[in-house]
Specification:
With about 230 residues, the chain is α/β, with parallel strands linked by helices. It has one domain: Metallo-beta-lactamase, Chain A, CATH 3.60.15.10. About 20% of the residues lie in helices and about 30% in strands. The strands form 4 sheets. The chain has a 6-stranded mixed β-sheet with strand order 1-4-5-6-7-8, with no helix packed on it. A 6-stranded mixed β-sheet has the order 9-10-11-12-15-16. A hairpin with a 4-residue loop joins β4 and β5. The longest helix is centred in the C-terminal third of the chain and has 11 residues. It starts with a strand and ends with a helix. The model has no long low-confidence stretch (mean pLDDT about 95). It binds zinc ion.
Length: about 230
């Protein structure tokens, strides 16, 4: 394998509880790709986490967003503003208007005065597209949690980056969190689409890495909820 993959550990306050969220970093000699960007204000911890992996922030070339929820696009504008190099932003067509500030974030409460992070999307990605970077990263359209959700499959490491299509609790793989998922039926159909892949590990944004027998759980989750 010529490319590398690892997760970053960023703290996030979730209903008064301190949790860890897991953006993914994939890199080789040419490209450094960050998948999802934490909540607003996490530039320093993203930098520190990249340094822990011996990747200087100045090497970051691309950002892929799995969907437009605020805990995924949070630090995006700050990263782009503070970087000296050009970083390309990739997302699904349906995520673009939310990320670019044309549409109101779907899960924002009516009375919220939260100012959403905003940035330009440079490249729209499509279902089944294989991005050539780092030995190939396949885009899998997995709506349900939000209508614009994608998961990614890193071919060399056989890693499924599930975004919020699944979660993990203490290493146990579970379906998407119903509390935050807009269409549970669609989300389960999307889990069905993930069964086609030979997977060695699954990275859940909420819950981290699942390996071994937990991967078989994908099938169980799908058929239980079908
Ligand atoms: Zn989400």
């Amino acid at each position: 394998m010529k490319s590398n993959i690892a997760t970053l550990h960023l703290p996030m306050n979730s209903n008064g509880e301190q949790k860890i969220i897991h953006p993914t970093l994939i890199w080789d000699d040419e490209e450094v790709i960050l998948i999802d960007t934490g909540v607003p204000g996490q530039l320093d911890v993203i930098r520190t986490e990249m340094e822990r992996l011996a990747i200087p922030f100045s090497r970051l070339t691309k950002i892929i967003l799995t969907h437009h929820d605020f805990d995924h696009i949070g630090t995006l504008p700050e990263i782009l503003m503070k970087s000296e190099q050009k970083i390309s932003v990739l997302a699904h067509q349906l995520a673009k208007p939310y990320i670019e500030g044309e549409k109101r974030l779907l899960k924002l409460k009516d009375d919220s005065n939260f100012v959403p992070p905003m940035a330009k999307v440079d490249q729209v990605v499509e279902d089944d597209e294989v991005l050539p970077e780092c030995g190939g990263i396949k885009v899998i359209f997995t709506p349900g949690h939000t209508p614009d959700h994608i998961s990614l499959y890193h071919i060399e490491s056989k890693t499924l980056i599930a975004g919020d299509a699944t979660i993990a609790v203490n290493g146990e793989l579970l379906g998407p969190n119903p509390h935050y998922t807009l269409d549970m039926n669609e989300a389960n159909n999307s889990i069905g689409r993930l069964l086609d892949y030979e997977v060695e590990q699954i990275i859940c944004y909420h819950g981290g890495i699942c390996k071994g027998s937990e991967i078989k759980r994908l099938e169980e989750i799908y058929y239980t909820n079908k």
